[in-house]
Specification:
This protein is 76% helix and 0% strand. It is built from 17 helices and no strands.
């Protein structure tokens, strides 16, 4: 197995564990009588653990090496999955499990993405960013699809999906541990006395523009996964759980399919395309909610997934082009932490919907996405390139 593929398999498995929780939200709603706000908290608390992992994992891997960070972090994520196997005990156990999964996943994602990009040195520009994005997207989409099927048609829906994921993650950790090459850590002399500088990240020119778009990376799939399926469940009957898995898989499938196409685009152009597709998806989702249309929800998932893929590849492309192996982990973690702000969107929309309704809240999100798109287009017309053209070839 190629070295980068071992690390990609590990990213895939950890991403599976972060997102396969989504179709189970409907199971927990029915069996544990959880409210929509409690479900949104369970969905979002993962990000509370994730952000510290992202911010610490990347810089630590720049200093100590990728493997010493990625492998322990993935084991922490596995512990979170084990906690979730006891989720039938109630809301508190689910909350703790989701937090631990997020903590391990954050460090795995930032250091693991940098590791894959390190292993792509010498390849065509954008190769490392595409490999990392595809690995994560396949995990984000494949996990919910498998879990939706297991939870819909097999017994023990609050246990079996976690057992299946635990086996896959354990196998992937073993594969990544098998002498996968990684860049040497910084010499001890360069690391000494730098504890106070651990969170300092070299931010290249133009990153503020990337940061402005970053939250939309996960606003789009979060709305697709956690908001829209619940708004059309009245017409789904007993298929609501499997439909949620299909919606999640569809969202991430389109995110995967668009990334090879956009890999050669300039980051600003890719982000504009992603924002346009995502905005269209939010508008379609509002129409689907108004008509209680499962077909409309699927079309919305396709557009929101395309938006996710465009925004993600544009950010990772920027990071790859503006960093070296010594600085890549830190900037990757910072970028990912900004993208995961989007995980708060279901909770925000739930709060807004209590005041103005579900459809108007989605239309408000659509309007904000259009405003962001307009700002990117205006900068594209009037601004200078944020990455020298030779780094994009």
């Amino acid at each position: 197995m190629r070295s980068w593929l071992r690390v990609a398999l590990l990213l895939f498995a950890v991403a599976w564990g972060t997102n396969h929780f989504v179709p189970l939200l409907l199971v927990y709603r029915a069996r544990l009588a959880l409210s929509s706000v409690e479900l949104a908290v369970l969905f979002g608390v993962y990000a509370v653990g994730l952000v510290p992992g992202l911010l610490l994992g990347g810089p630590l891997s720049d200093r100590w090496g990728r493997r010493p960070v990625v492998l322990p972090a993935s084991i922490v994520a596995l512990v979170g999955t084990l906690i979730l196997t006891f989720g039938a005990a109630g809301f508190g156990v689910l909350l703790a499990g989701r937090f631990v999964v997020g903590l391990g996943a954050g460090a795995t994602f930032s250091a693991g993405t940098a590791w894959i990009q390190d292993l792509a040195e010498g390849a065509v520009a954008g190769t490392g960013a595409r490999r990392a994005a595809v690995a994560l997207s396949c995990g984000f989409g494949g996990g919910p699809l498998v879990t939706g099927i297991l939870a819909q048609w097999l017994p023990s829906p609050m246990l079996l999906p976690y057992v299946a994921h635990g086996l896959v993650l354990t196998a992937s950790i073993g594969a990544a541990a098998r002498r996968t090459p990684a860049p040497a850590p910084q010499p001890r002399g360069q690391r000494g006395g730098e504890r106070s500088r651990l969170l300092r990240v070299r931010v290249p020119p133009g990153f503020v523009r990337v940061a402005f778009v970053a939250p939309w990376v996960f606003v789009f799939p979060s709305v697709s996964h956690a908001v829209i399926p619940a708004l059309v469940r009245a017409k789904l009957g007993t298929l609501a759980v499997s439909f949620a898995g299909v919606v999640t898989a569809t969202t991430l499938l389109f995110g995967v399919l668009v990334q090879p196409v956009l890999r050669t685009w300039r980051p600003r152009d890719a982000s504009a395309f992603g924002l346009a597709a995502g905005a269209a998806g939010l508008l379609c989702g509002a129409a689907a909610a108004a008509a209680v249309s499962p077909a409309g929800a699927l079309l919305s998932a396709m557009l929101l997934g395309t938006g996710y893929g465009g925004c993600l590849i544009s950010g990772l492309r920027f990071v790859e082009a503006t960093t070296t192996a010594e600085t890549r982990g830190g900037l990757t973690g910072l970028y990912y932490s900004l993208t995961y702000l989007g995980f708060a969107s279901p909770l925000a929309l739930a709060a807004i919907a209590k005041r103005i309704g579900d459809v108007p809240s989605l239309l408000l999100a659509f309007a904000l996405a259009v405003v962001t798109l307009c700002s990117v287009l205006l900068e594209r017309v009037g601004g200078a390139p944020i990455i020298p053209s030779e780094k994009l070839d």
